[in-house]
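About this split. The held-out portion is used to measure sequence recovery: a designer receives only the structure tokens and must propose an amino acid at every position. Recovery is the fraction of positions where the proposal matches the reference. Here is one held-out target exactly as it appears in the evaluation file.
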């Protein structure tokens, strides 16, 4: 994730926000799916213009 952020920032001069999804049993997050949905929603609300490219990159594991 850090290498991708560096390329987007230094090569393409994009501003970006990086966030690591906390585990569901951490103090800051009771439900990781809700946390992620809230983060994506807040990001799109703050950047809701046509000239803003929005990229969501997920790398990890998932389970039901």
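Reference sequence for scoring:
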């Amino acid at each position: 994730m850090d290498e991708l952020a560096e390329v987007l920032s230094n090569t393409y001069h994009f501003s970006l926000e990086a966030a690591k999804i906390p585990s569901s049993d951490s103090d800051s997050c009771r439900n990781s799916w809700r946390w992620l949905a809230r983060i994506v929603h807040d990001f799109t609300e703050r950047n809701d213009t046509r000239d803003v490219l929005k990229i969501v990159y997920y790398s990890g594991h998932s389970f039901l």
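Annotator remark: Residues 2 and 60 are 14 Å apart (CA to CA).
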